[in-house]
Amino acid sequence: MAGGNYLSNPNNSFFSVEDEDVDDDTFLRNSRQAQKLKEIEDRALRSAQASISILRETEDIGVKTAEELMVQREKLERTEKNLDEINTTLRYSQKNINGIKSVFGSLKNYFSGRGDPKPTTSDSAGSSSGASGSGYPSTASLKLAEAMEAKPESTGPHPGLRIRGLADEDDGSDMRSPTSSNPLQSRFNHINDILDKNMDEVGSSLTRLKGLAVGLGEEIESQNDLIGRIHDKTDRADVTIQRQNREIKRLLK
Question: What does the record list as coiled-coil region(s) (predicted)?
Answer without folding.
Answer: 66-96
